[in-house]
């Protein structure tokens, strides 16, 4: 058997083993705001809709002005009174809807992220080869990405970060190949546009793509042409979901969440966590590629602008605080890895002919650097165990099933953290306790109890004290699943007239 065939067979076997591990740890649960928002949106799209009636309004015959009380996490007010729409972009839900329709399996939407993760490992290999990495270092790139803690964390849950990363890499790869084959420019445009559908901030990739594509008007025209159908879809979706082609489910979030003063602490935070999760070798290697003259100037500019665009933008973003928020940078992290491996290639002259002893020495040195970086990743994975998130997420469907089994049809269930899961798994009438104040709750409770409704609550631990303030009354725990408790609101005790 020829050497390339052996190499391909070994690579395929490693990828297959990795896939088995990923599928074993994949969460098939609709959980909090993000995963429930995406999966609920995919179910809507599969029905050909972008909005739906607010469940509680219809059942309790309440005015549209009260809609906010009954809109679960992952949704916003819809384009018409009494309706609601998913707040998240349509790209990932569209992937999920296609997967569910094609396969006919309700589990298919949850496989979009792990399958995207496997695509990422293949794409970074071909990107490395396109940039001139030897096959061994290109495989090392797949390993460094595949065991990056934030990548592992995101590829086993129903989130957009890994699919967005896959489309970002596909766009850059197509852009680089367009230098030889002009038609790839249209593919780059399509991949870029799909990535923006999945995650709007993938638009930050545009400078890197401008540098990756041939500097010719024809290439830019083909790039734009490739993206037009997906841009048109986004405008039509926004019109249907939010009432205007340029409206989104984010509202004013970005403008309110960005500030110049955020940058110093955020930049230090991201730099620190990237070094601790990917190793200083990877973060410093990307910086050094700027001075590596054996890498073409335009390719250096691609790699530097690719990651820097995400790093700088999210340096101004208000949300941060834990290591997993480096997921915002995930579509740019392949540039860190590729830049580092190019520096390693050139420092050790791995792309040049050498004698047998020198070749072994240089290859061994490269292996030491790569294994040292992998050791940092694996050690972090072993400590934090992000791949085991599926165990914690299972409480959402389990608690929802408890609700289906325990509560009568006339129930009103106060919740917040589990509201998206309740919308997906149950027919229950739920209300968002976080939008209720004691006076409004007293009115709502009185009017609904007169009509035969009974009040319950499904709460995560952090919600218990909050709901006691917002919804005062005699609450009694009646069941639980894991750390999620089901509570019943008991009738008020009548005042003793003799006192």
Question: Which tags fit this structure?
Answer:
499 residues; 3 domains; 5-stranded mixed beta sheet; 3-stranded antiparallel beta sheet
Could you explain the architecture of this structure?
It is a single chain. The protein is of the alpha/beta class and 499 residues long. It folds into 3 domains: 3-28 and 107-391, no CATH class; 33-94, no CATH class; 394-490. The protein has 22 helices and 8 strands. The strands form 2 sheets. It has a 5-stranded mixed beta sheet, sandwiched between helices. A hairpin with a 2-residue loop joins β7 and β8. The radius of gyration is 26 Å and the shape is elongated. The N and C termini lie far apart (97 Å).
Provide a concise account of the structure shown.
The chain has helices at 3-25, 33-46, 55-60, 91-103, 112-130, 135-146, 149-155, 161-177, 184-198, 206-212, 217-242, 253-257, 263-278, 280-288, 297-315, 333-347, 356-384, 389-393, 395-406, 419-425, 438-450, 464-470, and strands at 52-53, 75-77, 83-86, 411-415, 429-432, 454-459, 474-481, 484-490. The chain is α/β, with parallel strands linked by helices and 499 residues long.
Helix-strand makeup class: alpha/beta
Tally of alpha and pi helices:
22
Shape: elongated
Oligomer: single chain
- Over the alpha carbons, how many angstroms does the gyration radius reach? 26 Å
Strands ordered across the widest β-sheet: 5-4-6-8-7
| Unreliable segments of 5+ consecutive residues | none
Instruction: Provide the residue-averaged pLDDT.
Output: 92
Q: How many domains, as an integer?
A: 3
Strand % is 5-15%
